[in-house]
């Protein structure tokens, strides 16, 4: 899977936060940004557990990392372009 570029997600008001107790609505290949304090990671979803509590992200540098929903990260997805 090709790693996304850091510009894959907009920096402004065209992103949507995923909140709740599960990331189960996300799909492998989807580009997301995880933010916590001053730490920001943008990457594509490589895999996620069936219950949506754990996901693996491949960053733009090719690093694969695991995140749990209780780790305290806010997860953002890009909103579709208006038609």
Run of helices and strands: EEEEEE
CATH architecture: Roll
Q: Largest beta sheet: what is the strand line-up?
A: 1-6-2-3-4-5
Give the strand tally.
6
Structural class: mainly beta
Count up the domains. 1
The shape is: globular
For the sheet with most strands, the description reads: 6 strands, antiparallel
Over all CA atoms, what is the radius of gyration? 12 Å
Mean pLDDT: 80
Helix residue percentage = under 10%
- Number of H- or I-type helical stretches: 0
Query: Are there runs of 5+ residues with pLDDT below 50, and where?
Result: 1-14
**CATH topology category name:** SH3 type barrels
What does this entry look like structurally?
It is a single chain. The protein has strands at residues 15-18, 31-36, 39-48, 54-59, 64-68, 74-78. With 83 residues, the chain is mainly beta. It has one domain (6-76): SH3 type barrels (Roll), CATH 2.30.30.
Please summarize what this structure is.
This protein is mainly beta. The protein has strands spanning 15-18, 31-36, 39-48, 54-59, 64-68, 74-78. It has one domain: SH3 type barrels.
Which features would summarize this protein structure in a list?
single chain, disordered N terminus, SH3 type barrels, 6 strands, 0% helix, six-stranded antiparallel β-sheet, 83 residues, mainly beta
């Amino acid at each position: 899977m090709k790693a996304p570029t850091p510009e894959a997600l907009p920096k402004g008001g065209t992103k949507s936060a995923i909140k709740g107790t599960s990331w189960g609505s996300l799909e492998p290949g989807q580009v997301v940004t995880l933010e916590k304090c001053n730490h920001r990671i943008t990457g594509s979803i490589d895999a996620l557990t069936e219950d949506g509590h754990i996901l693996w992200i491949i960053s733009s540098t090719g690093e694969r990392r695991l995140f749990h929903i209780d780790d305290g990260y806010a997860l953002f997805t890009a909103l579709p372009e208006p038609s």
